[in-house]
Amino acid sequence: MQPMDKDVLTTSEAAKLLGISVRTAQLLIEGGTLTSWKTPGGHRRVYRTEVEALIARTRPAAVLESSLVIVVCSPDRRAIYEAMLAAVPECTVAIHEDAHTAAFVIGSRLPAAVIVDLDGDHSDRLAFLRQIDGNPAFGSIAVFASASADVMASGDLAALRRVTVTSPDQLAAALHRLLRDKEAPHDIIVDGAPFPLASNEGRRLTALKRSGLVDTAPEDAFDRLTWLASRSLGTPIALLTMLTNDRQWFKSRVGLKMTETPRSWSFCNHTILQKGVFAVSDLAHEPPFDTNPAVAGAPHFRFYAGAPVTDPDGFAVGALCVIDYEPRRLDAEQEKTLLALAALASDEIRLRATDRQLRWALDSLDRQHERS
């Protein structure tokens, strides 16, 4: 497979990504909305970047395309928000103690929500809140002011037009309502086995398709990370998994011949529902993992630890995990290593997305020059 092949789509693949029929996709191609060309065999092909650009142009404003939540709070309140938002599996959280840093981050990539804590001396954070409230460029962001009863009664928030004022203990529920899919089950059954899902699973699957990673060739950038995970943590198996609606597919693998499993076998179903390392020291003695086919039968896995891998918009598209045939535990330093390697995998996925956007922009400029 050539390096660029994963960015080239058939008509049916383009239709699937757009969520339309193949015939409708054909009409878009024939009408010139999607630029295409024919292979020597007479088959139409389009660039993935063309399809993503069309999605961006036609996407309804109400569709939430991010699961990133940015929190602005004082240093002594950081632990409170880390604990609070750990219970919201639908989001990835970035906490900033400086409002100027948060403003820069928001300007570079719009999050789903911003939470501004108004506990204690909050003059800078209140000014930041007013800046967001008055800037139309941030109109798609849900903004929450987390305030005590005294701050709520002070009148400081009265002039804010689209800020939701809430107490800290109501924030998790408010975010859950914001981020969940309109209709999403909490559990689905594949091959007779249930596994848990976040309530924004539909959007997560869309983000995974948008990444263009599934069913692509091995790549050194990811293979180095699984090799490092296996060597540094002393496990015979390390995997970079991608969780589709019915499969657990391995983008990279060390110590395992199979390239995928049914999703119902995946321990990573639990990993992508939390923020840190998810680990099971002895799978054979921990329900429901004791009945997993890979535990109860060959290859008889006994230990698992994984950390979520996210895309640029904060969706957990998969996990970096290590597996052993013997029960064991990771110490604090080893958990930190696994989290760092998962973060590097996430960074690599973000770089791919930025590269696709840049190439699309350059292609668009080239087409404009050709027309002029």
Tell me the layout of helices and strands.
Blueprint: E1 8-10, H1 11-18, H2 22-30, E2 36-38, E3 44-47, H3 48-58, E4 68-72, H4 78-85, E5 92-96, H5 99-108, E6 113-117, H6 123-134, E7 142-146, H7 149-153, E8 163-166, H8 171-179, E9 187-190, E10 193-196, H9 201-211, H10 220-233, E11 237-243, E12 247-254, E13 260-262, H11 268-271, E14 278-280, H12 293-296, E15 303-310, E16 316-324, H13 332-371
Parallel strand pairs: 4-5, 4-6, 6-7, 7-8
Antiparallel strand pairs: 1-3, 2-3, 9-10, 11-12, 11-16, 12-13, 14-15, 15-16
Helix pairs in contact: 1-2, 10-13
Key terms for this structure?
GAF, Excisionase family DNA-binding protein, Rossmann fold, globular, 3 domains, 6-stranded antiparallel β-sheet, Beta-Lactamase, alpha/beta, 5-stranded parallel β-sheet, DNA-binding, Multidrug-efflux Transporter Regulator, Chain: A, Domain 2, 372 residues, 13 helices
